[in-house]
Amino acid sequence: MNIREEARKMKLVAPVLAASSNEMRNSALRAIAEALAANKEKIFAANAEDCRAAEEGGIAPAVMKRLAFNESKLADVCKGIDQLISLPDPIGKSLLKRELDAGLVLERVSVPIGVIGVIFEARPDALVQISTLCLKSGNCAILKGGKETAGTNRVLFSIIRDAAVSAGLPAQCLLQAELHNEIDELLQCEKDVDLLIPRGSNQFVQYIMNNTKIPVMGHADGICHIYVDRDVDMDMATDIIIDAKTQYTAACNAVETILIHRDIAPLFLPRLARDLKAAGVKLRGTQEAEDVIVRSSEAAEHIDAVDIMGEDDFRTEYLDLVVSLKLVADVEEAIDHINRYGSHHTDSILTRDDAAAARFMQMVDSAGVYRNCSTRFADGFRYGFGAEVGISTSKLHARGPVGLEGLVTYKYLLNGSGQIVGDYASGRSSFHFRDL
Amino acid sequence: MNIREEARKMKLVAPVLAASSNEMRNSALRAIAEALAANKEKIFAANAEDCRAAEEGGIAPAVMKRLAFNESKLADVCKGIDQLISLPDPIGKSLLKRELDAGLVLERVSVPIGVIGVIFEARPDALVQISTLCLKSGNCAILKGGKETAGTNRVLFSIIRDAAVSAGLPAQCLLQAELHNEIDELLQCEKDVDLLIPRGSNQFVQYIMNNTKIPVMGHADGICHIYVDRDVDMDMATDIIIDAKTQYTAACNAVETILIHRDIAPLFLPRLARDLKAAGVKLRGTQEAEDVIVRSSEAAEHIDAVDIMGEDDFRTEYLDLVVSLKLVADVEEAIDHINRYGSHHTDSILTRDDAAAARFMQMVDSAGVYRNCSTRFADGFRYGFGAEVGISTSKLHARGPVGLEGLVTYKYLLNGSGQIVGDYASGRSSFHFRDL
């Protein structure tokens, strides 16, 4: 397949999809859900084949779980499609309507982004989520999934595309890339692809960002912090930190660094260290953190508990049962550390002190800034967006979990009755700017 | 000056400016306007020096006009600052407030983008507009103006920066780059600069886009179209086309291509050609356009009026008294031509037919789509935004004229009371998503 040619065709068909009614897009989503259910045996068979091959290839059990597409995953994606259908149309919304002068009316309306390329990990449910999010938001999509589920993806994609087309959407609205070298071809399509959303490892996302002129939305790093302030409920703090570190270690919103107020460290850090170790977490940290733990009454079981680390190590994203520990003088030092070493993803303060919390939430320059809860809440479903195509640490356009709203932009419509600029430049006419 | 080091310092001070109150930012703007007025003789003297040097260097008279900074330009920029002061605070706005569960409240608030680099043409008033727009929106800015007004810029910049700092804004909130090689240094600051806004020639903007990893907002081309539909008021159409082509030829929103419905061409095109030529405009176009003109009753004065051009020439931005002419079968062909050869900037349909207008405004994939008015209205002041830092043809973040709203993004704040994700994953807790 020639990706460039296909992307060119898609670009020219994008306004047709953008002009489709919400009813037609919803009926396409309904047709997709029905077709997935009707063809489930075929999907499960292809998936069993993929899983068998992956197992023979010696894949890690944690990854294995993601490859599977079974009755429960099917039920989940169909529930997700139902949610998408129930959400209001994100396109065609009037965002501003202003009379500039008599008979000259400006309007800003939401429109799809156009053609979006999504490159994602080997998770068949992701293919369903991403393609249906793109269709609901009126966007054409080029999809490239992980190779370990290529067979499942092929079956899912053809079911989804056929159902969408049968419901009246244009034939070129969805395209699947299957070969790895097609990714490099896709990166060259800056004239026709409006946005790339890469999901995957830090190195992979960096590679995409460094090798294309197409705007990229997403994140390379997820170095999330929890700062434990002086006045804190220590039971709550422990529960939150254990959840943020261990509930799903491989997630980008899992915590990597715990900053602790120096005044509470002698009381809090030894018990936190004990509980983290009990949960299987390896500890790294500054010499001072080590000293506080060793000096505590629970020293016997904690001697050498902490691997001493240097400042630059705080830029490490573990994605594993490992955490960095550091003591700070106050909320200001915590803010400075996070803005300097963090990745502007999601950071949380645990405190009873409203002033410290307000300062932290104002000054930390991240897509998500939390108080008294786990960083793991950074997720489109948990924000009530239905689903997400990814999480953005970019500050332009969409930040944080990207759902339907992050998949649209706007255009300005200006309706006149013969107005020319010369009349306004000469003073013969003048604007009156009245919002309607 | 080491731009990288300065940008690093600016990045760490950006949250301080972001946290400043609207009152403080407005009082800084007031101080700037007062200081400009108080120091006007110094500014005018520096500007006279720049203008003299430019004149000796043999600069074009049209450009000369842009270099000048006199009483009337001073009055204009001070009026612009007053407008900015009167506009509501663009930061700290609550864009979404949702209770996810009891005691767990998500909020999306607008925040500044952070550190913005603006590279602009030799126009002293632009320096004042850009720096005050950035300060009002809570953004730190690195400014690099055209070299022809370097002396004026130096005086203006130090007045503006000193006034801002005296009003309480952080000392690093504004920085001026003066050397051309500092631009290349700035392009390397992707860790600390959040956004670049280049203004200037197509080649210059392309150079910036191709040589940085920093997101770039703006436009390289402004290939704007006017489509004259079959049922049109021909006097109005002529006035609009003359305005869009000649009122300010060097502007990106000046029209470059006129598409004319084939049915009305024999009546309309010869008179349009005559009026354009009378206004000093050179005509280029297809053989068919030439034939229609030559065959008309006014042929005598129009023989060889049109330089015949090929399809690919329709991608040319003239920025001069030259226009391309082409006949099309209907609104569909006009839409196809514009989406294929245009630059997604601003395009206008002239018609009495509501259905054709609706189709055109829906299907043309540009930042501005107009009906029955001049493309020259694409401008921040004319949209009622007070001023603009530029016009964006990108679809991400900001599109069209970029004013205060285009200079902010948002962050998500989540206030909890000890919530952990494990409880929601296990079903012990569940979200109730209630918008507040």
Task: Please tell me about this protein's structure.
The structure is a homodimer of 436-residue chains. With 436 residues, chain A is α/β, with parallel strands linked by helices. In chain A, 42% of the residues lie in helices and 21% in strands. Chain A has 15 helices and 17 strands. The first copy, chain A, has a 7-stranded parallel beta sheet with strand order 10-9-11-8-7-12-13, with helices on both faces. In chain A, strand 9, helix 12 and strand 10 form a beta-alpha-beta unit. At the A-B interface, helix 1, helix 10, helix 13, helix 14 and strand 13 of A face helix 1, helix 10, helix 13, helix 14 and strand 13 of B.
Keyword list:
globular, four-stranded antiparallel beta sheet, seven-stranded parallel beta sheet, 2 domains, Aldehyde Dehydrogenase, Chain A, domain 2, 436 residues, 17 strands, homodimer, 15 helices, Aldehyde Dehydrogenase, Chain A, domain 1, 21% strand, alpha/beta
| Main interface: chain pair and counts | A-B, 77 and 77 residues
Terminal Cα span of chain A: 49 Å
Number of strands of chain A: 17
Q: Measured on Cα atoms, how large is the radius of gyration of chain A?
A: 25 Å
| Average pLDDT over all residues of chain A | 92
Broad shape of chain A: globular
Tell me the β content of chain A: 15-25%
- Under CATH, the homologous superfamily of the largest domain in chain A reads Aldehyde Dehydrogenase, Chain A, domain 1
Structural class of chain A: alpha/beta
